[in-house]
Amino acid sequence: MRKLVVAFVVLAGFAGLIGVGAVTALLVGSGGRGAGWSNCSADLGPWGDGAGRGERDAVTLSAESVAIAKRIIEIGEQRGLPPRAWQIAIQAGKTESNLVNVFHGDRDSLGIFQMRPSMGWGSVQQVTDVDYAINKFYDVLLAVPRWEEMRPGDAAQRVERSAFPLRYHKWEPMAAHLVSVEGNVEGVSACQELPSAGVLASQAIQYAQSQLGKPYVWGAAGPNAFDCSGLTQQAWKAAGVEIPKYSQTQYSQGGVHVPLAQAQPGDLVFWGYGRDPNGIHHVALYLGDNEVLHAPQPGESVETTKLWDGGQLLPTVVRPAADPAQSSGAGSSTSEPAPPAGIAPREPGAPADTPSPGAPAPAAWGAR
Fold this sequence. Notes:
By secondary structure, this protein is of the alpha+beta class. The chain contains twelve helices and six strands. GO terms for molecular function: cysteine-type peptidase activity.
């Protein structure tokens, strides 16, 4: 199992601290402990510089949010749960409610974790009781197979069942920092254990190259035929990274946005009418050296070709976010478990990709 990678220090008198100034004092007291999850740019995986981001995010929390984070840790300790569980709960609470015990939400979603009474989480009174909500979250988390081996944001998603699973990764450094200043458990740097971009991208590209010559079929995602987003989805899935179907959704939720000029092999390249993200109709896998691999359109087959523009190439590519637990083989099942009673997905149905029009003549890299 992947080592827990969080560094911790004790903070005396935490309960008496209030407001942003109090959190600032908390952070100053945690300096000099070395690198940990807090210094890893979680939503960028191994590609970004997240130095200090956990601290910066933590100082924006309200007094209520800090108190709730502290209570999550206290209950986790009382139940004998490892610090990874505390971090998962903090990430989920920050994503769902900004770590505030709210009395409103999507449909009947309520409380820190936006639990829905209609979905079996408990009564309105229960899900808006802080201690009940935290314990209920832990109960459902413990029922998730191999949750300890997952990246914290992925484990949070397995509990919440959100339609936007990548959101939970954003708060990984902040959650780790809050755990670190309260838990006093030594760890090692997480960033050193994340798989490199090159390793994951090469796995995705290797899978895509093995599909060369297979026919384009609208809506298909293998194994015998593909449309454009089906191919990119399955390619990254072969590298242990889950991204959604449909080109527009891959652009908005498939990973981190990177300027086209900084594209690396494995990145997703998009075309949209008028270069508009709302008009995206095609996606391809960038191979480097001004080449892409894609499933073009009906009547054609998976192929490699030079990157083209035609007035539709978007100036931004997407780099899928890495999940080190899955990419190392842990918890890499391709089938989702049956959802626990809880929050139902909140995303409206996405349209299927439209076949790409005939590719214009290849153009020089970066053509606009």
